[in-house]
Amino acid sequence: MNTFTIIGIAVALAMDAFAVSIAAGVFLRSIGLRHYFRLAWHFGLFQALMPIVGWYAGLSVRGQIERYDHWIAFFLLAFVSFNMIRESFADDGNHTKTDPTRGLRLVLLSIATSIDALAVGLSLSVLNVSVWMPAIIIGITAAIFTVGGLMMGSRAGDIPWLRRYADRVGAGVLLFIGLRILYAHGVFC
Question: Is 41 inside any structural domain?
């Protein structure tokens, strides 16, 4: 597998992380270096590890994982989305919003945005291609796209109406990504 193909796969896999990081950028009041590092590190790490896990899983569990991976991603994204919506309606001014770059929400988002990379690892295993260089490229690409998404989201968050409804807009984006994953796997066809 050539480098151009690997980069194409990495960019395609990074799109979910990019969209989620835009939503996170809009959601956060101000973004510091810690936010950039935490989100980029986790998204990049999970994107790099999932192909390795998939590669090692190999053919023996491929059919079982492929049947449910899109549902796992959808339910994780929907769970985070509905919690964001619930928090937006419960916000009375004193309520502290949950930072999407910390805790369980960060882990759930990291898993949800990297589930497709697991399938790529399974495919590499079937093709008898070494997983190490693709995993590194996929992880770095996801981290770069995550930083770019946070930057775009923070700038979009300067729009007053968007800032006011950031929770709901972000939740909608996450739910849309989950539905898009289901559509891509033929659930609605």
Answer: yes
Phi-psi label, residue 32: left if phi above 0, alpha if psi -120 to 50, beta otherwise: beta
Structural domain including 97 reads: 3-184
pTM: predicted TM-score of the whole model, two decimal places: 0.75
Read off the tokens for 84: 């964001």
Residue 158 lies in a domain: yes
Instruction: Give the chain's domain count.
Output: 1
Q: Give the Cα-Cα-Cα angle 39, 42, 45 (nearest 5 degrees).
A: 140
User: Rounded to whole angstroms, how far apart are CA atoms 92 and 89?
Assistant: 8
Residue 189 lies in a domain: no
Residue pLDDT, tens place only, 145-182: 999 999 998 888 777 666 667 667 777 877 887 788 78
Q: What is the pLDDT of residues 91-119, one digit of tens each?
A: 555 445 677 888 888 998 899 888 888 87
Q: What does the block give as tokens for 172?
A: 């909608």
Cα separations in angstroms, 108 against 42, 114, 118, 151, 157 = 10, 10, 15, 21, 23
118 vs 46: CA distance, rounded Å: 10
